[in-house]
Amino acid sequence: MKKSLLCIASFFLGAGAFAQEVITSQGESYSNANGYIDFTIGEAVIDKGTDGSNDITQGFHQTNWNFAGLEDHQPSVQALIYPNPTQESLVIQIDMFEGVVYQMTDAAGRIVRESQLFNEETQLNVSDLAPGNYLVILSSSGVPMKTFKLIKNQ
To answer: What gap in Å lies between CA 71 and CA 61, rounded to an integer?
Structure first.
């Protein structure tokens, strides 16, 4: 009996040492007061669910890989950038523009544009920027409000 328990315990301890582990170059974790979600990109989807307007996949690979996005540091502030992706011009629209500064950084983190907003709608000429991914960070008194992921096409 002791030999059987020892064998079973050894099996479970050994199996725990070889538990599934994912090493990936892409993924993200999000959380709020109601729960959390972690995901990686690059592995097979094993199940999919929908409520008609939202899709969720179980497994690892997210089928809608979108480089454009938003980090919402202050949800009470309404802001929008468009068009995204863009080629020549970009519009920053924000309801509370007083004291707000925008900063645009390239993929290496270098600041390529920076200025204060003076209107609810500000148009920027981005035709001289190289094609690639950029961040547009809106902040007030040095505190980030929104961070947009922008794609600049040719």
So the answer is: 21
Residue environment code for 51-66, b if the CB has 16+ CB neighbours within 10 A, otherwise e:
eeeeeebeebbbeeee
CA dihedral 61, 66, 70, 71 (to 10 degrees): 30
CATH of 69-152, one of 3.30.450.90, 3.40.50.360, 2.40.50.100, 2.60.40.3080: 2.60.40.3080
Total-model pTM: 0.56
Alpha carbon distances (Å) from 95 to 87, 91, 151: 25, 13, 23
Comparing C-alpha atoms, which of 125, 146, 26 is closest to residue 76? 146
More confident residue, 66 or 91: 91
CA separation, residue 36 to residues 2, 31, 108 (Å): 42, 4, 29
User: Which of 68, 109, 72, 71 has the alpha carbon at shortest distance from 90?
Assistant: 68
